[in-house]
Amino acid sequence: MVAAFAALWACDSPGFDAAAATELAGPHLSHFTTFDTWARRALVADPVIRNRAALEETLFAPIRREEQVLGAWVEGGVTGRPMAFGHLSAPPGLSYRTVRDEALGEIAVATEKVPDPRVPFAEEAARPRAVIIRMTRENDDGIEVTVTVAYRALH
Length: 155
Known about the structure:
Layout: H1 2-12, H2 18-25, H3 29-44, H4 52-60, E1 69-76, E2 83-85, E3 97-101, E4 105-113, E5 129-138, E6 144-152
Helix pairs in contact: 3-4
């Protein structure tokens, strides 16, 4: 289903311009910045935290109870292991619109219906629309890290 939606989304992309992407992402950028910083710091501790479950618990602790967060994924770090919070093991394969934020630099924004981690068996029609923000950059140790967060769309 995600692949089918990605194909539809790609066809619909011309209506999703940089201004729309910026407007959708705007209310979530402060939170995204805070989580991105946290995730990158947690990944530096990766060699110290030898248990994957403990690392994932630490990594996603700040967002686990946040109603606005529908999923999060962190890829990269010392081990390169992808880690996920929510019902999708990987971020949806969508066509992202790249925009430039003054504080963050280049970020990618998409929109999609995703499962809410607090309502595990909701029908697809009942799934909330999400704004998905993704950023890839080098960590302090020079290793590329991608942080992606799906937020409940505000409008």
